[in-house]
Structure formats: C-alpha cells, structure tokens
Predict the 3D structure of the following.
Amino acid sequence: MIIFNVEFFGYFAAILTTLAFLPQLIKTLKTKKAEDVSLITLIMFLTGVLSWIIYGYKISSTPILIANITTFILNLLILIFKITFSKK
C-alpha cells in the first residue's frame, strides 16, 4: 500500500488551482480584451487569496504560500490588464 505524505496533496492542489488561471491570462494578453472578466469578482478573489497568503504564512504552510502568491500575481495581472485594456 502506498502512503502519501499529506504535503503531496497540498502541492498537487496548489499546482492545479494556480495553473487554472494561466489560460485566462494568456487569452487576455492575446485578445487585449477582458470585458467578460468581472471586476468585482477579481477584487473579491484577490482579497480572498491575500487572506490565504496571510493564513499560509501564519501556519508556515509552503504549499499554501506558493500557490496563493503565484495565484495572486496571475490574477493581479489579469486585473491590471482588464483596467488597462478597458481604457482603450
């Protein structure tokens, strides 16, 4: 019987949930459009991810920190592009 370290699931979840935002970021960059992305949703999501970063830091969880810092950066870029592209 194979026994997985619980950290494996943390890293696995971190990779999947973080990479899930790459297609949106790439599409936004290619089309230079982000009108279908909700501004309120992005702001709420970034606030939640920032809370996860604080939580991960407080409990010293590397998978939570890596995933959420990366996710925060990707979604912050989407937000910046949404604002930038909507001005054109």
Remarks:
- The chain is about 80% helix and 0% strand.
